[in-house]
Amino acid sequence: MKGSAPYAGGVRRLAMATAAMVVLLGAGVALETALVGQAERGAETAPALTTPTSGTPTGGAPAGEPTATVTTGLDPAVAPRIVVDHLEFGAARKAETAAYAKRHYGTATWRLTPTLIVLHYTESDTYASARSLFESDVPNRGELPGACSHYVIDKDGTIHELVPPTVMCRHTVGLNHLAIGIEFVQSSSGHDPRWAVQQVLRRRAQVAAGVALVEALQRRFSISDESVIGHAMANDAKGFRDLEGWRNDHLDWQRPEVVQFRSMLTMSP
Ligand SMILES: [Zn+2]
Predict the structure, then answer these.
(1) Which of 12, 110, 144, 208 could cross-link to 97 by cystine, CB 3.0-4.6 Å?
(2) 62 C-alpha to center of ligand 1: Å?
(3) What is the pLDDT of residue 204?
(4) Is the CATH number of domain 71-262 3.40.50.1820?
(5) Residue 252 alpha carbon to ligand 1 centre in Å
(6) How far, in Å, is the centroid of ligand 1 from the Cα of 137?
């Protein structure tokens, strides 16, 4: 993703009650439930596109009420901690996704069996703004469903699952039928895209979380290191396909930084 999210300095974010399950994944066992208040993470500011969901939980269930047990399907013995904060992805969005898949890939399905992982950065400064954009389901390149990504990793290393990795989500032209999308919260702030990714790579907690998440997904879906790519590499990726001739024009995560990221992966199948 590479949306426009101007940095609105100085505006302290309003508290947003976000009910979210914090689980240590797998086996249907929710080990910890937490109310994650967006404001707790403090002095970050809200980009202009953020729509505070005051009073409206974004996690699917009313704040304070127990949600159904949610798991990510990852091995609980080795999976990183993931905050499940799913987008509203009901029948309408699934139908939009299946229609998109039919037009672009020739298969009318919203289901995903991932064979690739594509790395992105949000081009926004907060998790909340990225989530808000993905939740909005507004046309992208004139088509629905709106853009989204399966995971968003905050600067402090918190991993959020917005869409299960078995559901197709629009993050990379030509590869959505194959790929899980992972976003790192980072704005380029007027610098070039490589600079932005280098900021992520220097942020120890965030990159460690990314490595742990990617390794867990590699184990679950038998995805090789070479199949962990950057958005900027997508047009040349194995399996790239778009029946309407679309190509990516995004430059997030170019090869040198992806090679650096891959070098940290140790659990590849
Ligand atoms: Zn991207």
Answers:
(1) 110
(2) 31
(3) 96
(4) no
(5) 5
(6) 17
Average per-residue pLDDT for the chain: 79
* For range 96-104, the mean pLDDT: 98
Confidence band of 266 (pLDDT split at 50, 70, 90): confident
Burial class (CB in 10 A: 0-12, 13-18, 19+), 5: buried
Q: How far is the CA of 66 from the centre of ligand 1 (A)?
A: 34
- Residue, of 67 and 189, whose pLDDT is higher: 189
Instruction: Give the burial class of 269: count Cβ atoms within 10 A of its Cβ; 0-12 exposed, 13-18 middle, 19 or more buried.
Output: exposed
For residue 231, report the distance from its CA to the centre of ligand 1, in Å: 5
Ligand 1 mean position, distance from CA 73 (Å):
25
Q: Are 39 and 158 in contact (CB under 8 A)?
A: no
- How close is the Cα of 171 to the center of ligand 1, in Å? 6
- Cα distances (Å, whole numbers) of residue 1 to 39, 106, 160, 172, 203: 24, 23, 16, 8, 20
Q: Who wins on pLDDT, 25 or 247?
A: 247
Contact 7, 50 (CB under 8 A): no
What's the CA-to-centroid distance between 120 and ligand 1, angstroms? Answer: 4
Residue 191 has a pLDDT of 96
Q: What is the CA(2)–ligand 1 centre distance, in A?
A: 6
Q: Kindly indicate the confidence band of residue 74, based on its pLDDT and cuts at 50, 70 and 90.
A: confident
Model pLDDT, residue 241: 97
Cα 255 to middle of ligand 1, angstroms: 13
